[in-house]
Design goal:
The protein contains 2 helices and 11 strands. By secondary structure, the protein is of the alpha+beta class. It is globular and about 40 Å long.
Length: about 190
């Protein structure tokens, strides 16, 4: 259990520092997960600019700084780390982005847990960086438009079994919810 929570937090940092599921800046209370990858490596896109970013958390109408980190790109895989030259012992989260339309992307990270292997979050690119939605499984029941989507809520994650259902959940979430984190390019 501790390993699965640590993996979720690592992924939140990846997706919260553009990615605590890319660096663990975000305290995940839930996420979307699957046992098999819902996207292929060939469907990965690379619209996010590798750079130094300030990860900020949205709190009561304000964006508060959490940490600074670096997004790098190798092939079609992004990495988030708090260090410019991260080594094997550093907290590095790797993820891919997959276009779901409307300027939104599904971020997918390999983060094995007790009953899942891959985790997902919603990312929206902006002129100065990106927004990370930090989808909360418990909160999905409050989002209109996902009643017919096949996902299994429970605990720290919602299990999804196909890309179409995941995309439907992410799109519904994007039109009705506000991002929890943003990544702003730093000079």
């Amino acid at each position: 259990m501790k390993q699965s929570i640590a993996a979720l937090r690592k992924i939140t940092s990846v997706f919260a520092g553009l990615f605590v599921t890319l660096s663990i800046a975000v305290a995940l209370t839930g996420c979307m997960a699957s046992t098999e990858p819902l996207f292929t490596p060939a469907s990965a896109v690379t619209p996010f600019k590798p750079a130094r970013y300030s990860l900020q958390k949205y709190v009561v109408g304000n964006w508060l700084p959490e940490k600074t980190g670096y997004v790098t790109l190798t092939g079609s895989t992004y990495s988030w780390s708090e260090k410019a030259e991260a080594g094997p012992s550093d907290n590095v989260v790797k993820f891919t982005l997959h276009d779901i339309g409307g300027g939104f992307y599904a971020a997918m990270a390999d983060a094995p847990g007790e009953d899942y292997r891959y985790v997902y979050d919603l990312v929206e690119l902006t002129p100065d960086g990106a927004m990370q939605y930090g989808i909360d499984c418990d909160g999905l029941g409050l989002v209109r438009g996902i009643e017919t989507v096949n996902f299994q809520p429970g605990g720290l994650k919602c299990m999804v079994s196909n890309a179409d259902d995941l995309k439907a959940v992410l799109r519904a979430h994007a039109t009705r919810m506000f991002p929890k984190h943003r990544y702003v390019v730093r000079d």
